[in-house]
Predict the 3D structure of the following.
Amino acid sequence: MRPDPELYAFSRYRDRPAIEWPGGKRVAVWVAPNLEYYEIDPPAHPKRKAWTRPHPDVVGYAHRDHSNRVSHWRMADVMERHGFPGSVSLSVALCQHHPEVVADANARGWEFFSHGIYNTRYAYEMDESQERAIIEDSIRTVRDATGQTIRGWLAPALTHTVNTLDLIAEYGLDYTCDLYHDDQPQRVRTRSGDLISMPYSLEVNDHYGFFIYNMSPREYADTLVRQFRRLADEGGTVMCIPLHAYLIGQPHRIGPFAEALAEIAADGRAWPCRAGEIADAWRAQQ
Amino acid sequence: MTLDPGYLAYPHRRHGYDHDLYAWSAIHERRPIAWPGGKRVAVWICVSLEWFPLIPSDTPFRAPGHMQTAYPDYRHYTAREYGTRVGFYRLLDAFAKIGATASIAMNGAIAERYPEIVADIGSAGHEIIAHSTDMNGTIATGLAEAEERALIAQSLDAIEKAAGARPRGWLSIARSQSWNTVRLLKEAGLGYCCDWVNDELPWRFANGLVNLPLNHELSDRQIITVQQQSADSYAQSVRDAFDWLAGEPGGRILPLHVTPYIIGLPYRIDAFEALIADLAARPEAWVAPGGAIVDAWTAQQ
């Protein structure tokens, strides 16, 4: 164990070289729906419980099931209507359980990156070969289901090992969404070369909005617009909107969310894009 | 470090679910539902009416809203009773004012202890849903099957004795079930439960029991008590939900799960009265109790 993760050099926000986004846009806005599968009765992990209640945790499980039965479709329609593609944080076993959802996202031109096999299987304490197995499974499963080769990684339920970033770089992935230290893409050092740290967000994640900060739907929508305006004022920035359909797609939240997307789109300073396009645009300027 | 190899085995990785309780189905692939009168949104008001014994039980878990201080917790005992004595009558009056029929999810203990309430519900034409025995009657895996079966029977018997009819619907405390619950509810003769929040229309378990989803995120408990929002913010959220659902293809349900000791307080009830009057006046609204919604849905399957 080490006190500093030793993943990146310090770089102050002041006096950095400017980053230019296509079309002279000020902020790259990417929307990251988490398309997930939570198991009803997963095996126990020594470091983390999957559910707070004895299995079946009916509310926990059914709430997430709402994503696939109802709210994914509602959320995806709203994103498409306002011109925002998705970059999907995918529990890759969803390709087996509900391939209809994955096919829908693929047909809408969304990009996929891996969020592990299930959101109820945690990476803590995996040895290197076990972690290779979930990376290889992810690459193979997404390729078989969508024809896409994953370029990014968001650790399953945000559970890591110290090998994770080295391994995904070795398998040729371009970006990690697990580091929260910046509003611009950053270089991450690994033993297999560089990775890009793609700004994701905990703070404007719908889960934080509704369950950490207890926002009303309209307060959350206002938060997104404020986050966007500030990042657009500063320029050369990335704004991620991480979503869970079972939260943002609830009937009381989807209307205010649609209004926020409409406002961001109408501002004119947003580049609505996928994570891989941000990686490409940034790398071309290094 | 290494994990047990079984942790990377996925025996239920297959099309559909990792269980056999019910079948996989996305809402837009089903035939659209039309509510009576061609209405778009079934507004289902469901009131939980609960009795919290002064001696709380933690097996299998302590119910939300239960006693919190050392014995005797007069503070929470009486604050919950306030809802039953006062807040609930504000709600009954509010329903009467707009001609709304609601579901009352009642502990068996309410029926045993307060037969006047059962009579008032009956004369107003509201539906009674069984809501366990009392607030010590929580269910989760770990509760012995025989005890769970007895708990369900005791709840139904108490309500039947007071109301003259056996409830068709069931709501578990905190919507918490064991692996046995769906089977035991069906065996007890119930037609539907309201515990699974995975959908916005009714659906059937593999054993034939219907689930009528009672959205927990839109409850007064979640928005007001957990998220600490105002009654006005709650009402705004419900109006936003109605507006959205009224524009979706096919009939939808707007479930309003409310609690007398939360929404029935003097400083909150005005916002709720105005809300339900507003919803009932909407041309797309069909205000109906759970059993009527299940019947309308069943007739179209």
The two ends of chain A are 32 Å apart (CA to CA). The first strand of chain A starts at residue 27 and ends at 35. Chain A touches chain B through 52 residues (CB under 8 Å). Residues 32 and 242 of chain A are 5 Å apart (CA to CA).
